[in-house]
């Protein structure tokens, strides 16, 4: 069964409080020199063949529901 991954991340100009909290915790634990931005990952399993039309529908779903495109960007990756 084919799998498609949709990665959603805050746009670079958007404040990421969760990422800042993780960055601070890593620094306190001795992991210096790292900066974290936290996003979301969706794995979508599809029935049948993965066609360009189906990928377009998944992208439409990501834009409609999975990502808030005002503050987030996303990419669709076919496994």
UniProtKB/TrEMBL annotation:
Pfam families xref list: PurS
Gene3D superfamilies, sorted: Phosphoribosylformylglycinamidine synthase subunit PurS
Major location (coarse): cytoplasm
The UniProt record lists the keyword Ligase: yes
EC number: 6.3.5.3
Cellular compartment(s): Cytoplasm
Organism: Tessaracoccus flavus
Family: Belongs to the PurS family.
Reaction catalysed by this enzyme: N(2)-formyl-N(1)-(5-phospho-beta-D-ribosyl)glycinamide + L-glutamine + ATP + H2O = 2-formamido-N(1)-(5-O-phospho-beta-D-ribosyl)acetamidine + L-glutamate + ADP + phosphate + H(+)
Annotated GO biological process: 'de novo' IMP biosynthetic process
GO-annotated cellular components: cytoplasm
Name of protein: Phosphoribosylformylglycinamidine synthase subunit PurS
Enzyme class of the recorded protein, top EC level: ligase
HAMAP family cross-referenced by the UniProt entry: PurS
InterPro entries: PurS, PurS-like_sf
């Amino acid at each position: 069964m084919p799998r498609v991954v949709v990665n959603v991340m805050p746009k670079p100009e958007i404040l990421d409080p969760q990422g800042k909290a993780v960055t601070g915790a890593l620094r306190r634990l001795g992991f210096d020199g790292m900066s974290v931005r936290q996003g979301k990952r969706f794995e979508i399993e599809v029935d049948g063949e993965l066609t360009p039309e189906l990928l377009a529908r998944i992208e439409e779903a990501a834009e409609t529901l999975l990502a808030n495109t005002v503050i987030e960007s996303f990419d669709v990756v076919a496994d």
